[in-house]
Structures are given as C-alpha cells and as structure tokens.
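MOLECULE: protein
FOLLOWS: sequence and fold
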Amino acid sequence: MSPIDVPADNGVIIGEDGLARTPWAARDPLLREYYDTEWGLPVRGEQAMFERVSLEGFQAGLSWATILRKRPAFRAAFDHFDPDAVAAYTEHDVARLLADAGIVRNQAKIRATISNARATADLRAEGGLAEFVWSFQPETTPRPRTPEEVPTTSPESVALSKALRRKGFRFVGPTTMFALMEAVGIVDTHLVGSHRRGSSGIWQRP
C-alpha cells in the first residue's frame, strides 16, 4: 500500500500520518500545513481580515498554492496588510509593487488592494471590516462528504459581495467571497471525514 491511501467512501485522503484531509490539502506540504493550522479557523481582527480579503482577490484566476508561496513577499510588499499604511499608498507605491517579482504583478489587483484598504478604514464607523464580513454568517454550514459536494458560492457570499461592492471594495465577487468565508471560519466546508471538520469551534461535527 502506498503511504497515501484514498478511501472510496468519503472522499478524504489518509496521509502517511494517519490523518484524513480533503484532497487539495493532502500532498503539497505547504497546503497541508495551511490546512492543518490555519484554514477554516475564525479570523476576527481587522488587519487579519484585510489580509485575507486581499489575498483572495489576488488569487482570482490563479491557484491558491501560488498565493500561499508568495504570501511572505506579499506581506513585506504591503506593510503586513496594515490598512492605514496601504490606504496611504501613492503612484510611487503602485510602481514599486508592479516591479516586485515576489508578488502577483497585476495592476488592477494592486490598485484594488489600495482602494480596499481605504474602504476598510471607512468601515470602522460601522464596526469594522471583520464584523461586517461576519455579519453574513449563515444559519447552517455545508456538510460535504466529497469534494464534488463543496459549493463555490452561497446566498450569503452573493450578499456579502454586493454589500462590499457598495462600500467601495473591488475583486470581491461571490466565488471569491465564499472562499474567504471558508478560509476565515464563517462556513465549515471541511469534508465530513476530515480530521479538521468542526475545528473552528463554531460548527459542530459533522
């Protein structure tokens, strides 16, 4: 038997450590570490939430593994996603970022991140970005047993996308916002058979 086995009944992959994970997190060490220690855990702070919104926006059209590998460079380039620092960026900073090979050099996404930082600052008058995003938490969470059962959007992610756009945010489409909601614990889309199911402490297993 190979060190990684794929059970036919529930879609998870059993790693060499004996733990069951969703297939996307089973083989790449970086993705596995992210899955085991961060993905799906609640994010409540403004700066942390702004970072997640920004990275999800940069991920659009790319693989998450690409973004995760560039994450240290993104943090260095964007002042660790301090909204006030990013909101103050000028055209000089846009040029600097476009010249930074360590990040995704997409001008539209870079400019969106800067404008989103300004929108984040504006949201403080309404309780802040994190509280705003969490206000779209659904009453129930998906309970996927196979990767095919994991949704890519939800009524809440559609509503969150529209609400953020009204607040001036960009690159926050419904699919991107559903990915955000998964990443920060608002919904739990760990497969029912995964060792991480219920790890957010918000949703009960299964």
Notes: The longest helix spans residues 107-122. Confidence is low (pLDDT under 50) at residues 1-6. Residues 46 and 129 are 6 Å apart (CA to CA).
